[in-house]
Amino acid sequence: MATILIADDHPLFREALRGAVQRLLPDAVLIEADSAATLLALADAHPNADLLLLDLNMPGSHGFSTLIHLRGNQPQLPVIVVSAREEPAIIRRALDHGAAGFIPKSAGSVQMREAVAEVLAGGTWTPVQVAQAPRIDSEEAQIAQRVRELTPQQFRVLGMLSTGLLNKQIAYELHVSEATIKAHMTAILRKLGANNRTQAVLLAARLAVDPSTVRWPATDAGTFE
Q1: Among 2, 22, 79, 153, which one has the highest count of C-beta atoms within 10 angstroms of its own C-beta?
Q2: Residue 102's beta-bridge partner residues?
């Protein structure tokens, strides 16, 4: 019995994915997430899941960062990216960052089932237009490798930092002390090779589908981290 994770913040599209999977695998266990934080928790709770269907744009997820983090921490979990962005360059980036497949949201249910079946069988599935796109450059590949080295909690902190939250706000959201967040921030800067919060966000923005969606971080009084 297959276990399939479906991560998308739009209920109607989760329903469409659920229907496509159920027609292919009537007995599959389907587990849904509507945010990056929920997905990370579910992925930890279900380490033997057979497949993840992942939307690139969810609350707490900036472009390819969640895909990269999961591939680094749970390489046994195959991922099919599901996105409304169908440009060849976006598809190529998803594959280069570890996706086993890419389903445009404009695809029909038959294509969805074909993609799921192919990836569950150990193959890959992508639209034909991906052949038109060049591979990611060395800078993006290096940043992705650094993001893979973050612990799950450090990754969560980086995601919140990229939304413009202060250390004290991140601490409140994660139910930890501000000192703990400062320690995480120090480790994040070291692993990313960044000198300050702004540079860390700038590096993270290289992994966004649209870098303009990443907000510059606010500065905590009395700290440069």
Answers
A1: 79
A2: 81
- Exposed, middle or buried: residue 195 (CB in 10 Å: 0-12, 13-18, 19+)? exposed
Decide: residue 183, CB within 10 A, 0-12 exposed, 13-18 middle, 19+ buried. middle
Dihedral sign, Cα of residue 215, residue 85, residue 135, residue 159 = positive
Q: What distance in Å separates the CA atoms of residue 107 and residue 225, rounded to the nearest whole number?
A: 44
- Helix 197-205 to helix 138-148 angle (10° resolution) is 120
Edge to edge, the sheet with strand 79-83 lists 29-33, 3-7, 51-55, 79-83, 101-104
pTM of the complete model beyond 0.85? yes
71-89 pLDDT, tens per residue?
Answer: 999 999 999 999 988 889 9
Domains of the chain: 3-132 (3.40.50.2300), 138-213 (1.10.10.10)
CA distance 102 to 105: 10
Residue 172 DSSP class: H
